[in-house]
Design a protein that fits this description.
Chains A, B: Its main location: cytoplasm. Two copies of one chain form a homodimer. The first copy, chain A, is α+β, with helices and mostly antiparallel strands. The first copy, chain A, has six helices and 26 strands. Chain A folds into three domains: 2-121, DNA Polymerase III, subunit A, domain 2 (DNA Polymerase III, Chain A, domain 2); 134-243, DNA Polymerase III, subunit A, domain 2 (DNA Polymerase III, Chain A, domain 2, Roll), CATH 3.10.150; 256-374, Proliferating Cell Nuclear Antigen (Box), CATH 3.70.10. In chain A, α1 packs antiparallel against α2 (78-87), α3 packs antiparallel against α4 (205-215) and α5 (268-282) runs antiparallel to α6.
Chain lengths: 381, 381
């Protein structure tokens, strides 16, 4: 195996594959990155058994300027190899592998000789044997992920809740995540979808976070294929595989209230900053709670944060509309900040029912396709 | 006590004082920042008992736009107070303190009430009762610090070595630091110094690092005053106090070799990058050693790094001059990188005597005023 490649492009490809590789993984060969060189392309693979990423540098890629001298393959220690490539002195590098799986990496006057592993020991990629596929625009998929994944549970007690529930039916994709204190749901219409297509899967939150980061640099549509225990996302030069979580996701539809007693309409970023200030104090108290008091006749909404030792904060918040009944409600400011962040710069409507019942946030512009739910907190006073 | 101040300027002043404050300090009141308001100025003080910083916001400062309504003083919890000020919604803020040391901080519709402490409990600043003073340009002092402080010892075994030795005599300032494996010495001429002035002090490395960071934003000359157990640096609106380390610093002059057998002249940044690459491998081995082999007849200098498990690296390095005897020498690449970094973009001369004797690095442009010394390492092979 021998090839020459342009260093800057190679580093970009390596970084994508590195996302799948974890130094914590128990299987030694998975700490490596697999390089497989054919006459047409160099195929890089990384995996931590849950997530696998494959990316293809073809000889047609002008940025990479790949020159194949002799085909072959090898597994090289990932972090180490990537650090070397990043620090090499020249614009290009040449890698040559001998029959004892030793790789000689040359760039300018610098020459590294690195011990690799037998590529035949490297696990095969999961098989996704379906011809059905979904097509989603890259930025839309990234938004769906970012608007839901922050609500997945961090607790391993109920493994299903560490994933995002994706339901595809009637030409629509619905994504839901909840940690049982808050819930986020986003819907999108699938442009060219077969309306008879039906899937119901749970994708680990960690997988989706890594995928969203990889999508940052991607402008192409993403092709999604779903099999028994795997989901495959294909875009640009890369394939991203994730295992699925097993089990039945709880029925979350019935959790979302459909009526409301008090309605507050305001700009998400402005409320976010007010809550951020109030949480400076609530973070010092052991209950981490912020109170919101709405008085409809007086048309005031006031936020309170309190720490017995340090002090308290009170702030009148600006809003566009306040209607319905007076209400005083308390909530975890961190959940509320996560929810507000997911609306970006939008104006939102918050619909409350009662002090101890969940309330929901929706964008004013599109009330049906995106909802964040937060469960209030009982306070002593 | 009551005043109004512009938030952005106030944050800058607070950040300077915050440098002196450590959340690890045992004395509770030192976790606070002292505010003392007179008719002319607001004086901020922070201290961790080793370092104290005082900074003065005068009513003449247009950026701060300080308005004094009622004089007084208070101690407020530092990190907490600074976070509040950073997150307030408007351009200005007002602070009003009542007789129970409660501070009401108002900005726009946001109002914080914070419990403070009695300013009479706050320790007094050290007294530096001398009229003698040194004057050093801010950028020169920062350079002297940065070129020496990285060589101080991290071990508390010999406390003196955790400081930088400053000797002022014959109108010259000499700064030396060593951790007994490497040494750095920098000299500067004192512009307007009285040549009879004589001081010999050891300043804690940590103090000098904080001072150097504060000097980043300073263009004024720095006035230095030295007392029995304290040194005081004055610049801009700030006074920076540090306690001195007690004891006799070892005689380091005799450690610096005055003859050499092999001389290598090259660009510091280029050698730095080569050593950085070689250290990728040496960091994996348990001895962390890089070898340099110089062959004068062949006019080659080659760097070797090696890790039995992972592999090895070999690199021929570029140089301007190689003279004297052939030599092979081994050293800790991290010490060498620290030393090389301190020369910036300069061309340097490295002078070796023997494989196990210290070697020195000096800038080609100015061989007398700056020297880095590195002790080689014995290797098995």
């Amino acid at each position: 195996m021998k090839f020459t490649v342009r260093r800057s492009a190679f580093i970009n490809y390596l970084s994508d594959v590195q996302r799948a590789i974890s130094s914590k993984v128990a299987i030694d060969i998975l700490k490596g990155i697999k390089l497989n060189l054919t006459m047409d392309a160099l195929i890089l693979t990384g995996s931590d058994a849950d997530i696998s990423v494959e990316t293809i540098i073809s000889i047609g890629d002008d940025h990479a300027a790949l020159e194949v001298e002799q085909v072959g393959s090898i597994v090289l220690p990932a972090n180490f190899f990537i650090n070397i490539v990043k620090k090499l002195p020249e614009d290009t590098l040449t890698i040559e592998v001998n029959e004892r799986f030793q790789a000689t990496i040359t760039s300018g006057s610098s020459e590294f000789v690195i011990n690799g592993l037998d590529p035949n020991e490297y696990p095969r990629l999961p098989e996704v044997d379906t011809t059905e596929q979904l097509l989603v625009a890259s930025d839309v998929l990234k938004q769906v992920i970012n608007q839901t994944v922050m609500a997945v549970s961090k607790q391993e007690m109920r493994p299903m809740l560490t994933g995002v529930h994706l339901v595809i039916e009637n030409g629509e994709l619905r994504a839901v995540a909840t940690d049982s204190h808050r819930l986020s749901q986003r819907r999108i219409q699938l442009a060219n979808a077969d309306t008879t297509m039906r899937y119901d899967i749970i994708v680990p939150g960690r997988s989706l976070k890594e995928l969203a980061t990889m999508l940052d640099a991607n402008k192409d549509d993403v092709v999604i294929q779903i099999a028994e225990s795997q989901v495959l996302f294909m875009f640009g030069h890369s394939s991203f595989y994730s295992r699925l979580l097993e089990g039945m996701y709880p029925d979350t539809q019935r959790l979302i209230p459909t009526t409301s007693e008090t309605q507050l309409e305001l700009d998400a970023p402005s409320l976010m900053q007010s809550i951020d200030r109030a949480s400076l104090l609530s973070h010092q108290g052991h209950s981490n709670v912020v109170r919101l008091k709405m008085e409809v006749d007086a048309q005031t909404a006031t936020l309170f944060g309190n720490s017995p030792e340090i002090g308290n904060v009170e702030e009148e918040i600006a809003f566009q509309n306040l209607t319905g009944n007076d209400l005083e409600i308390a909530f975890n400011p961190d959940y509320m900040k996560d929810a507000l962040r997911s609306f970006g710069q939008s104006t939102i409507k918050i619909s409350f029912t009662q002090p101890l019942r969940p309330f929901i946030l929706v964008p004013t512009e599109n009330e049906n396709d995106f909802v964040q739910l937060v469960t209030p907190v009982r306070t002593a006073d």
